[in-house]
Amino acid sequence: MTKRVAILISGSGSNMVSLVESMTGDHPARACLVLSNNHDAGGLRKAADRGVDTAVVDHRPYGEDRAAFEDILHARLTEARPDILCLAGFMRVLTEGFVSRWQGRMLNIHPSLLPKYRGLNTHARALQAGDTKAGCTVHEVTPALDDGPILGQAEVAIEAGETAETLAARVLELEHILYPAVLRRFAAGDRRMITLP
């Protein structure tokens, strides 16, 4: 049975586009919803242009009440009946209460070779540390930030003269390959880790 996938975004949605465009033909999943916490997210138009339903649950009216925001988020997602949630640049840290409702069915992509550099500014931190390689990780979401079982990684060599911006652009290209590859396997029930290239 084809799995239904909801994708959560906050911005331009480049990873969302790579996921949606991969879910064709014999793929075991299809996108059923793209949801953003930001009315101005450029990815909403991209999703609509690709025939995917969209929704917005703005976090700002809820202030510091994360649970109230997440209750509305959960309700809107439940209406769409997804089997899998994919976080794709969704810039909200989700509480344990929300994650527990979807745990085992929620994926995230992070721009570092976890467990290194959880959180933000991953590329600058890799350069400051003198690392020789960087990359991205797809993992199952657990209540701990950027933690959970690793399902896939892709890496690039850090080049001489690299900046955080150039490294980010190179890693993003890998994200667009890795995330769809992991989702395809995950939707088919295969949770073994893959490494690219």
UniProtKB/TrEMBL annotation:
Role noted for this protein: Catalyzes the transfer of a formyl group from 10-formyltetrahydrofolate to 5-phospho-ribosyl-glycinamide (GAR), producing 5-phospho-ribosyl-N-formylglycinamide (FGAR) and tetrahydrofolate.
Signal peptide: none
Family: Belongs to the GART family.
Positions marked as site (Raises pKa of active site His): 146
Domain Formyl transferase N-terminal, chain residue ranges per copy: 3-183
Highest taxon above the source species: Bacteria
Species of origin: Roseovarius aestuarii
Catalytic-site annotation from UniProt: 110
Keyword presence, NAD: no
Binding of N(1)-(5-phospho-beta-D-ribosyl)glycinamide, residues: 13-15
EC number: 2.1.2.2
Residues reported to bind (6R)-10-formyltetrahydrofolate: 66, 108
Classification via Pfam families: Formyl_trans_N
Catalysed reactions, semicolon-separated: N(1)-(5-phospho-beta-D-ribosyl)glycinamide + (6R)-10-formyltetrahydrofolate = N(2)-formyl-N(1)-(5-phospho-beta-D-ribosyl)glycinamide + (6S)-5,6,7,8-tetrahydrofolate + H(+)
Keywords: Purine biosynthesis, Transferase
Name used for this protein in its record: Phosphoribosylglycinamide formyltransferase
GO molecular function: phosphoribosylglycinamide formyltransferase activity
GO cellular component: cytosol
UniProt-listed GO biological process terms: 'de novo' IMP biosynthetic process
Top-level EC class as recorded in UniProt: transferase
Pathway the protein contributes to: Purine metabolism; IMP biosynthesis via de novo pathway; N(2)-formyl-N(1)-(5-phospho-D-ribosyl)glycinamide from N(1)-(5-phospho-D-ribosyl)glycinamide (10-formyl THF route): step 1/1
CDD domains reported in the protein's UniProt record: FMT_core_GART
